[in-house]
Amino acid sequence: MNQAAPPLTSPQPGSVRHRVVLDDDATPMARLIARRLRTWCEEHRPEPHAQAGGWVVVRSHDTPQLAAIHVGPGEWRVSNAIPEQPHADMTVALNARLSPVQPPSGNTSLAEPLVVALTAPPGAWRETAAEFWECTRDITGIPDVLVVQAHGSLGVDELRLGAGPVEYGIAGSPDQLAGVFSGVDDIFTALESGLTIKGTLAQLSVMTAASWRVRYGF
Amino acid sequence: MGSDVAETTTSTTSEGSRSVRLEATNHDGSFLGKIVSPAKFASGRESGFAFADILFAIDLGNEIVFGDAYPDWRGNLYDIQMVPDLSTMVEWRPGLDAVIGDYWLKDGSPVPICPRNLLRRLVAQLGEHGLAVTTAVEIEATLFEESIHDARLRGYRDLTPLGGSTGATYHLARSGDWVAYMEAVVSRLDDLGIVWEAWTDEAAAGQTELNLAPQDPLVLADAWVRTRQVMREVAFDRGHTVSFMAKPTAGFGQGAHVNVSLSRDGVNLFHAADGPSELMTKSVGGLLATMAGATSVIMPQITSYRRLVDLTGPPTTISWGVNNKTAAVRAIVGHPKYSRLEYRVPGADVNPYLALAVVAAGMLAGIERDIEPPAQVSHMAWCLPPGGDVPRIPDTMSKAFEALGSDSILRAYLGEEFVDFWIASRRWEWMEFHTKGGDPHADLSAWESRRYFEFP
Question: What is the β-pairing status of strands B320-322 and B329-332?
Answer without folding.
Answer: parallel
